[in-house]
Every structure is written in structure tokens, then in C-alpha cells.
Amino acid sequence: MRDFNYYAPTEVAFGEHSEEQVARLVKKYGGTKVLVHYGGKSAVRSGLLDKICNLLHEGGIDYVTLGGVVPNPRLSLAKEGIALCLKEKVDFILAIGGGSVIDSAKCIAYGVCYDGDVWDFYLGKAEPKQMLPVASVLTIPAAGSEMSEASVITNEDGDVKLGYSNDMSRPKFAIMNPRRTMTLPPYQTAAGVTDMMMHTMERYFTKDDDMDLTTDLAEATLRNIKNAVFAVLKNPEDYRYRAQIMWGGSIMHNGLTGCGISDDWATHQLEHELSGMFDVTHGAGLAAIWPSWARYVMHENMSRFVRFAVNVMDVPNDFTDPKGTALKGIEAMERFYHAIGMPINIKELIGKDISDEEIQEMTRKCSRDYTATCGCLKVLKAEDMEAIYKMARG
Fold it and tell me: pTM (2 decimals)?
């Protein structure tokens, strides 16, 4: 068992009336002039943007707005937000939306307090000394950014998608109303569930087998969300199961399911190159990569894959054939992905064959020009990354 520090300072306001607390919470955490950052039509069409802005106004809090965030949020819009915040003397950023909006908000918050190019942080060239406080009104449970220390941004110059993590970026508060998720399309619901489950799976598949409580928590959350997604796909207005998914997305990425164990993140890093090259939905990209990654690395800790098969995917344990049980667990996960409308390879994801040249380019970017590795369960070199991409081509 590894020593660990657990830090999850975000205040959560959860439930049907949680939005009414927005002005009080902004004031509590020092906001006097707010950038309200959001995506596109859904925040406007649903009336949520107007409601939040009216609540801020009624609470005596000044604000400016910036919309336009898209999936795989763009660096160019974040830089536009930085300039707006400096011009308007903004001291607090409130994201309305899902992980893309929150990640963009975090990028803006870093950049306002930095004299250089905010992309420096994502390249590892600099570390922030301060940032503006960030908070969220969550509408899409998936990325877990509402409680996590991470943000991911795409630089259109070269289609490079990079993540950066720093505890100072953990949001001050997160407002979560499950009713706001009931209009999500089935594909977006399924992709979100895939993303949040992968956040725990990236921690679960480890060589550290001796932190039983963390492992039990991980398995419980995975089983819960796996079951809940079928309920909401059948009945999108099922508040009980929408709530399980919304809270699950936060639990699965606030660090709780990784305490005392090492984490991997290779599937995420491999997928970032798919998103950067083809602008695909992140959760769907993870589903397309994970089965091939799992088959490639499972020999590093076969018992972990057996435990996942039995305790999460309900596969009978054949004690005479651990490898067979592990493989059946991966196959069961593939069936789960297909059952909720997710792909299990790159061809299903992008609708065409991927070329060797495209695989080589993704490998180059993922390995930082063949200088970096990724993963922990099995440390992947460039040749391993290329092999997994080829396994996953479909």
C-alpha cells in the first residue's frame, strides 16, 4: 500500500434546488465580478444560463459572459477568455456545462494570473503560482472536472491535446442538479458514463493489490454506474438513477477511488491523440482504445483483471484458467460498450479504416517525439503505443 495525501476541497451543492445557492457560494469564495463561461445552445435553450445570471444579479454580483466552448475545448477560446477577464477585471470564473467548459474555465483562470503563454503549463514549461478561483454548475456528468485537479485543452496549432493537473485548480464549489441531465441525448449519456468509469479503471488496474477498501469502493462505484446507465437510457427522466450517475462522475475522479494505489492513465493519453486528430467524443474514444490496451497489458497483473471480470462484470471465475477469466471480463466490457452504443475499436469510432501513417503520427505525439512513456501497470514505450493503436484499429 502506498502512502497518500487525499485532497478534495470542493463544496458540493447537490439536488433539485441547488442552483438557488449560486450567489451565496460565489460570495463565500470571494467572487465580486464573475466570468460566466458556457458552451452553446443547450445552456441558452434550457433557460439555465438566464437563471444563473439572474440569480447573480439578484445577489448583487456583477458578471460578464463568454460562450462557445466545444467538446475537446480549444486553446484559442481560452485565450479569448483570458483577455476578456483582464479587460473586465474579473476575479471569479463560473463554468456552466460539462467537463469541456470546466476545463476551459480552469485554463482561463491559470492564464489571467500569468504573464506568459498559458500553454506553457500544459507543455510542462512552467508551473502556476496562482490562479483565479473556479466553480461550476454541472450539466453533463462525465469528466469529473467539477471536483478534480485536471484540465485538458486542445491547441488547434498542430491538433495537440494535452492535460495539466494542479490541486489549486480544484473548483471551489460544484452545483449539481440531476434534473439538468435529463435532456442529454443517449449517446452523450453513454459516452459520459464511459468516461467516468474509465477514471476509476485507470486507477483500478494497478500492481498495488493491498489497499482493499479503495478497491472495494472502486468496484462498487463501477457496478452502480454500469447498472444506472441502462435505467436512464430506458427512462431518461429517472431522477434516482440520473442522481447516481451525476454523483458517480464526481466520486470517480476526485481521487477517492485511487487512494493508496498507483494509477495508470495510459488509455487516456492514447485516446487524447484520437481526439486531437479526429475530434471524436472523448468517452467514445476511450471505449475504442481500452479493450486493446487491456489485452496488451493484462499479463502484468492477471489477478487484477480476473477480479474485475468477476466482481464488476459478473463473469464466473474459472480457477483453472485465470487468463480465460480475464479475457472473458474484457469481452464482457466490450459487450457492455456495444449495449450502450459505444464503439470497441477505432474503425467503429471514426467510421473508416485508420492508416499506418495516422497511427505513426498519433504515436509520435503520444510519445512526445519518441522521448516519453505513458502508463504505470505497464510502462508503454513508443513501440507499445503503436502496437496498441494497431490492435485497436478494428
Answer: 0.92
